[in-house]
Amino acid sequence: MRVNVRRADGSPARNVYVQVYRQKADLSGNPVADERVESESTDNVGTVFFELAPDSYVVAVSLTGYGYGDPFNHTVESGSVRVLDISLGQILVGVLDAEGKAMQNRYVQVYLQKPDLGGNPVTDERVASDSTDNTGAIQFDLTAGYYRVTIGGIDGEPYGDEFNHRVVSGETNKIIVRLGRLTIGLQDASGKPIASRYVQVFRQNRDVAGNISQGERINSDSTENTGLLSFDLTPGKYIVEISDIGRMIDVPIESGRVTFSNGTTFEVR
Asked: Strand pairing partners for 70?
């Protein structure tokens, strides 16, 4: 039996641990694993080879994600080679700031998902996690299926739907998140910058009647001696409060754009 494991780009998946078990039937006639007969890791070309007696076997492959396929009924016949080809897919997550610059050290987690009683996806076991590198990206080689992906270290509303990110064998699913920017610029009546003015950004919620309510605080800081203060946020609408000036609702943030406010009005540039 020869087991070949390839990554999404076709390159060999090295050091993947493969175990082979004899197969037997349970009381209902369904196949189950018996004693383990062989185990080895794939070599530098992503392959492992086993000399086996003719029989039916269970093949367990240590991969990240869901099961690679049906592990049962791998039949080896005398004088022939049973070939098992496994091709992984990939999720690539990239995070950019409002100017399009790479954001490193953003913690990304990948979970299996399962349906609840209503058929809606919910979180299952976490299978992978890592942080974006200095390119602003991180890649995960995964078996085919649908996954939940969360991204930490970015302020604001969820970056999008975290569920149902599909992985297809031999393909890369790219999740690229680009933030927008909120810039506050404050001046007094004479045109001088207002420094050290405390600014808070909140999530904006709506009740069943559509009325706006204030959600959790996302970020806060004070204006600099230039009268300016900026926050990079995920796209959405927010509530902004500025000490001794007032409160703004429905403040929009758009990917790759700047929302500028003088403390009372705002515009997207």
From this structure: none
Element of type H or E holding 268? strand 266-268
Compute the C-alpha angle 128/146/20, nearest 5°: 65
CATH 2.60.40.1120 matches 180-268: yes
Instruction: Quote the tokens at residue 135.
Output: 């390119």
What token pair was written down for 26? 């349970």
The phi, psi pair for 20, rounded to 5°, reads: -120, 130
Q: How far apart, in whole angstroms, are the C-alpha atoms of residue 228 and residue 247?
A: 17
CATH 2.30.36.70 fits 89-178, yes or no: no
* Structure letter (DSSP) for residue 199: E
Q: Are 20 and 1 in contact (CB under 8 A)?
A: yes
Question: Which residues does 209 contact at the CB level (< 8 Å), separation at least 6?
Answer: none
Q: What is the CA 91 to chain-centroid distance, rounded?
A: 7
**Rounded to an integer, what distance in angstroms lies between the CA atom of residue 84 and that of residue 71?**
10
Note the pTM of the prediction, 2 decimals: 0.90
At 92-145, the pLDDT tens digits run 999 999 999 999 999 999 999 999 999 999 999 999 999 999 999 999 999 999
Ranges of each domain in the chain = 2-87, 89-178, 180-268
Question: Does this chain's domain 2-87 share its CATH topology with 89-178?
Answer: yes
Q: What is the CATH number of domain 2-87?
A: 2.60.40.1120
Q: What value, to the nearest 5°, has the Cα angle with vertex 91 and ends 5 and 14? A: 25
Neighbouring-strand partners of residue 80 = none
